[in-house]
């Protein structure tokens, strides 16, 4: 087979020369000693690799993911429709297939300019917090041309400032019930904004140099509109993708959940929120706080290193996360469910179990990618790869090939269980998330196989299950 890219050719030829020494399953402690003597070699290898990639044109994947152009068109039309249907069904007293589809509101009830204005203000406030010169500045993963972009870590600080602003606003009379009362309009305002942002990103990416393009981009205008053509679109130092990943949508999710909690108390005449609502709010708050506290871990994820910034991430980050991930809280406002304490204890145990797997797996990989010689990881076994990066083959990453996805799925289940078993709607999130992560795992697997070749095959033989041991 002819090599498609200069980079690929380099990997394959390097692989052949590596084959005899590649698989080292000794603990890292012994490995590090051996590595010291090889260090000079590795440095030369990585240098020549980055030299080659900087000379090569930007990597463009020809085999399109997500079902190619028809697939992404379907997703781009289907997601907003699905969002509206879900939110409308959730507002019904008795949502069921018998009264499907839910009655569509009049056009003037779908759009409210004031709501759009509030959304823009929210976005600008988050942008302002992002620009504050507080927090550590770190470097991202090396780009194809060897450069490393700088990122400021102040997401957690933005959450604290947002809490102060929301607290002050409520104190001075702002009514968060407005968010519940205009939930669909807010979702549509965010959708319109994300569409506008995607158009802007597509237009500016048309003039982007080849070295700025995302590995996932294809050259096809429709596909690239979806997946994103530019890898790291920036206005000066303002990184649009990095900002949208963790700020307006993720922090917005917490505010939406809080609004739902207050709406539940008002509509159900409660002096305190229900146990179910408290569980959902606390679990999801923990998830967001964790993401912002460990903000640096975002820099090694697929979203940042592989996918461009286009409709997929703009809609996902700005619309899907705040308006669909808050679905359980939204559901509980109109469909109360009493959870007993024994049941709550089981759900909390499930959540904590998922969280421990998720956090430890992500932290282990992140620490390893940041510093493979970290003494705290010395007990772990690895496989060498021809790229100079090793793969963990014991610890969490020796349990299954995506332990972080397993933890995430367990947490997703724990978020839905407080809604009881009266309806399938609150379980939409678990079903959707399973499909997303299974598909994402397959995408990542393809990238890793292409990147690491034989070493990846060896890893798959050592760790045969992808997400759930003995099942998948
Ligand atoms: P990962 O963080 O799992 O990153 C995958 C990358 O990790 C691979 O491309 C590879 O990159 C590296 N890797 C894979 N196996 C190994 C190994 N054995 N040893 C060392 N490195 C390895 O993927 P995601 O970016 O998809 O997910 C990050 C987190 O975000 C996950 O916890 C996921 O659950 C969560 N997530 C949440 C979503 C949500 O909507 N709530 C959506 C998507 C993800 P390389 O070798 O190049 O470093």
Automatic annotation (TrEMBL):
- GO molecular-function terms, A-Z: Delta14-sterol reductase activity; DNA binding
Q: Which GO terms describe its biological process?
A: cholesterol biosynthetic process
Q: How does it sit in the membrane?
A: Multi-pass membrane protein
> Could you tell me which Gene3D superfamilies the record lists for this protein?
1.20.120.1630
| Keyword Magnesium among record annotations | no
The record's listing under InterPro entries reads: ERG24_DHCR-like, Sterol_reductase_CS
PROSITE patterns on file? STEROL_REDUCT_1
Q: Which pathway does the record list? A: Steroid biosynthesis; cholesterol biosynthesis
Q: Where in the cell is it found?
A: Endoplasmic reticulum membrane; Nucleus inner membrane
| A GO CC annotation given for this chain | endoplasmic reticulum membrane
Q: Per its UniProt entry, which superkingdom is the organism in?
A: Eukaryota
Give the Enzyme Commission number: 1.3.1.70
UniProt keywords (A-Z) are: Cholesterol biosynthesis, Cholesterol metabolism, DNA-binding, Endoplasmic reticulum, Lipid biosynthesis, Lipid metabolism, Membrane, Nucleus, Oxidoreductase, Phosphoprotein, Receptor, Steroid biosynthesis, Steroid metabolism, Sterol biosynthesis, Sterol metabolism, Transmembrane, Transmembrane helix
Reaction(s) catalysed by this chain's protein: 5alpha-cholest-8,14-dien-3beta-ol + NADPH + H(+) = 5alpha-cholest-8-en-3beta-ol + NADP(+); 4,4-dimethyl-8,14-cholestadien-3beta-ol + NADPH + H(+) = 4,4-dimethyl-5alpha-cholest-8-en-3beta-ol + NADP(+); 4,4-dimethyl-5alpha-cholesta-8,24-dien-3beta-ol + NADP(+) = 4,4-dimethyl-5alpha-cholesta-8,14,24-trien-3beta-ol + NADPH + H(+)
Span-the-membrane segments of this chain are 71-90, 110-132, 153-174, 180-203, 309-327, 339-358, 412-438
What main location does UniProt list? Answer: endoplasmic reticulum
Q: Does the keyword Lipid metabolism apply?
A: yes
**What PANTHER family does the database record attribute to this sequence?**
DELTA(14)-STEROL REDUCTASE, DELTA(14)-STEROL REDUCTASE LBR
Family label: Belongs to the ERG4/ERG24 family.
Tell me the protein's name: Delta(14)-sterol reductase
Species in which this protein is naturally found: Lynx pardinus
